[in-house]
Amino acid sequence: MGYPDQRFDVNLSILFTELPLLERPVAAAAAGFTAVELWWPWIETPTPPQAELDALKKALDDAGTQLVGLNFYAGQLPGPDRGALSVPGEESDRFRANIEVAADFAASVGCTALNALYGNRVEGADPQVQDALALENLVLAARAADRVGAILLVETLNKPESPLYPLVSAPAAIEVVDKVNAATGLGNAKFLLDLYHLAMNGEDLSQVIKAYAARTGHVQIADNPGRGAPGTGTLPLERLLDELKDAGYAGWVGLEYKPGDRPSAEAFDWLPVSARAAR
What we know:
Helix content is 36%, strand content 13%.
């Protein structure tokens, strides 16, 4: 058990960001990792030119890295936005325009997990209207994910850093997962369990794992406080990942933490090099 017993991937939207996007896969590979994940890389557009999609696929292939998680278009992230799918008007339209683009790109690189960030509450918009729109868009996203053999992920964020995001507890995200699965009948909507966000919300992490491991499709970690590498805060991440494994979770664990004041390549000293390549 312990860290060497896990399947880790590196989030290239928070680590190696000192490099241009197309140089990050090979940097991750040089650090010993063979699996990576990404937020939607084109924050300005849900529909980038095919040449840019092809260039990212080539960078992943050339580095020998497998993309194991990809966000749908989520607005300005990093930035003020936390998703687009529940935001009425132009942002919802942009999310819809992105659905097939993201699904097709995922299929082209063998990525089987697509994360759909819910989006912030909007001043003046009825929360029930936003939730109805969210369900419509999540159903479309779940069907597109299913078409390419992927799961749809729904993520809890943390209230201190995302005060306008409505899914700030594990049960809140699970409720959305259940609604999507009931609406599609596909069963491919799953919970994205991020131990950092749940810890920031003050949730009982062991209890969340016990309750929801079977409905979890992806895990992300960072230490708390600070969102740094394991060992920089107080979370018992090694024990919690063992608990996930004991509860039957056998999927990926995304490293979604800030490297601090050092180059990203130096932010993995907590993990033996022999444990970094995907198994």
